[in-house]
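Subject: design request, 357 residues
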């Protein structure tokens, strides 16, 4: 997967493991952290449409702007990226996304680059793109699960959505504010999640679906299908929200907070043409029931996203996951190429204990 060539360029096989866009997002970001040139080949090699997608392209081009770096000539579909980060850090970026390319995925590329950046605050102004779309975390999941976990570790990322965007036209607007730690990052020790304290969520629906009360019907279905033995009714606070956007869309995020400080989400649930609001609610409720019955302390969608920060932190980390996703395992191996760290995964009664050593 890795090879350090004679020019001290870290060469990465982009088809390794999960073989998706996260290899590009993490590698290009960590190249900035470690200040080393990288070369990624076979990008998304086994995908239906191989090579860079628009959100990957926009992400890399903005790392060039962010650091004053250089790259080879790349475009949508490029399967080879040569990226050499610079050291002229810019604190303000303006980004244009002309489709529903995911804003959250763009933020991941940028925040992975800034863990050890020299300035106090960085802001990215995003015009266009999607806040909810397939194969990507929704904005409320990021803001209420991923970024609070980051904050507990000493890294501040704020996603301020000015306008929501849905597939296929996007049209979202956002400001991403990132404040690196002025000292060292904390490790994560979370072996038990404790007592359930609250369940919160956001249902985001485009305005054209207001008359048939799509958001309200989804909420009613969720409440009806949560297993009553798992909760108390006063623990649930799920809001319905309508937005004007270029495309019709529906996104649902629900998360749980525990007495240990653990925050876990169910992963974003999207509405689809031909799928009733009641069915969307059932899908979300079933995910929530599954989460409430589990013993994990980090959910499967957060587990791979928090890994880079845990490798940057100096002390060992320990937490529990329900399953080893391909994203998770790929990111672990990828991070070993950038850091002199290792990991251990031990089977537990209901899941796996993960240690970053």
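Subject: RE: design request

Done. Sequence follows.
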């Amino acid at each position: 997967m890795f090879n350090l060539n004679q020019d001290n360029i870290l060469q990465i096989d982009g088809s390794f493991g999960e073989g998706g866009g996260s290899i590009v997002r993490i590698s290009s970001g960590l190249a900035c952290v470690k200040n080393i040139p990288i070369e990624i080949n076979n990008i998304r090699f086994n995908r239906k449409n191989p090579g860079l997608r628009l959100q990957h392209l926009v992400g890399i081009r903005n790392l060039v702007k962010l650091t004053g770096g250089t790259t080879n000539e790349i475009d949508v579909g490029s399967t080879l990226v040569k990226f050499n980060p610079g050291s002229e850090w810019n604190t303000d970026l303006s980004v244009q996304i002309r489709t529903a390319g995911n804003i959250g995925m763009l933020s991941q590329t940028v925040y992975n680059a800034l863990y050890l950046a020299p300035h106090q605050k960085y802001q990215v102004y995003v015009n266009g793109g999607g806040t909810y779309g397939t194969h990507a975390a929704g904005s409320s999941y990021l803001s209420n699960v991923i970024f609070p976990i980051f904050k507990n570790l000493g890294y501040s990322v704020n996603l301020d959505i000015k306008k929501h965007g849905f597939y296929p036209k996007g049209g979202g607007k956002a400001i991403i504010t990132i404040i690196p730690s002025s000292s060292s990052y904390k490790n994560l020790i979370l072996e038990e999640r404790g007592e359930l304290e609250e369940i919160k969520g956001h249902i985001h629906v485009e305005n054209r679906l207001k008359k048939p009360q799509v958001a309200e019907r989804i909420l009613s279905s969720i409440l009806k299908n949560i297993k009553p033995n798992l909760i108390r009714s006063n623990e649930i606070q799920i809001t319905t929200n309508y937005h004007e956007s270029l495309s019709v869309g529906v996104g649902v995020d629900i998360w749980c907070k525990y007495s240990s400080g653990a925050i876990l989400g169910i992963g974003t649930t999207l509405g689809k043409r031909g799928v009733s609001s009641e069915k969307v609610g059932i899908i979300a409720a079933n995910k929530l029931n599954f989460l409430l019955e589990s013993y994990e302390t980090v959910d499967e969608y957060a587990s791979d996203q928090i890994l880079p920060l845990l490798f940057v932190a100096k002390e060992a980390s320990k937490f529990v996951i329900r399953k080893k996703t391909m994203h998770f395992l790929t990111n672990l191996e990828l991070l070993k190429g950038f850091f002199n760290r290792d990991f251990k995964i031990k089977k537990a009664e209901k899941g796996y204990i993960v240690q970053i050593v």
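The chain has a mean pLDDT of 95.
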